[in-house]
Structures are given as structure tokens and as C-alpha cells.
Amino acid sequence: MDKKKDIIDELFDHLNGSFDYETPSEGHQQRFLDKLNGVKAIEPTIKKSNTYKYLAFAACFVMLLSLGYTYINTSTTIEQQVVEISPEISNTEFYFVNIIEQEVAKLKSENSPATKKIIADTMLQLKKLETNYKGLENDLINGGNSKLILSAMIINFQTRIDLLEDVLKQVEEIKNIDHENTII
To answer: Model's pTM, two decimal places?
Structure first.
């Protein structure tokens, strides 16, 4: 530390007597500011073209699209959320959906002028039950009583199967009555 102080002292000793102690002439500050302003006026100004604005807008747009795409792809479907809550429901749902699809296929194959109305009504009831089932899925995801909701979901499937079986029996009876009427 002492050595640094000695170097600084030597420097000022060396410059001793060369300092300017005179006060500047009157108007010095104004002339200085005028020169400073003159230099600023001479500096070239860079004009931003509209191209930069369009590029910035396009970059923001691309960024928003990519964020939106990422958000959409990472969001899970209702079915995936239900499976996370209750993995068993996936197997149960698969089983019941297959039975329902088979019964619906049987019902549609029995479509005739005599059974058209009852089949249309059944399909409408099945859609209502499906909507009800989707509501139960939402309730399960939103933290409802999972045991009660899972039970209601299974009852919903069973109701659809029972409805289809009953209607198939009615369609069979209608076909038998039509068949008897055509024989007589």
C-alpha cells in the first residue's frame, strides 16, 4: 500500500506547477453547450424501418403460436385424467363399451318400418346416458366422492346395456307379431 501511495505522490509531484488555476472566460459554459449540441445535430440518426416492426410482430406471433401448441399438446384428455384417478375404470369402461357397441349393432340390424320409432327413441336415450356419463367423468376429475361417482358410472353402463336388451326383446316381439300378421 505504501508503494502505491509513493507512485501517486511522485506523479503529482511531477505535474506540480502545470495545473491551470485560471477561471474560464465569460460565456465559456454556453459556448461549450452550443458545441455539444452542434455535435449531436451532426450525428447521423438511424431511422428504424417498418421492416423491423413487421419482423418483431412476426416473431411474437410465432412465439405465441408455439406456446399455444405446446399448451394444447400437454393438456390431458378427460379420459386420461379419469384413468389417473382410477386406473381400473379404463378396463371396466372398455368391457362395457364393447358390450354396448355389440348391442347397438344388433339393434341397428333389426331396423324396419315397424321398429324404426323404438330404435330412434333408444338411440336418443343412449345419447342422454352418454352425456350423463361425461358429466360423471367431470365430477370425478373435479374431486367429487370417487367411490360414489365410480359406482354411478358403472350403473350408467349397466343401464345402457339393460335398455338395449329390453329394446331388443321388444323388437323381437314386434317382429313376431308382424310375422304372425303376414301369415294370417
So the answer is: 0.54
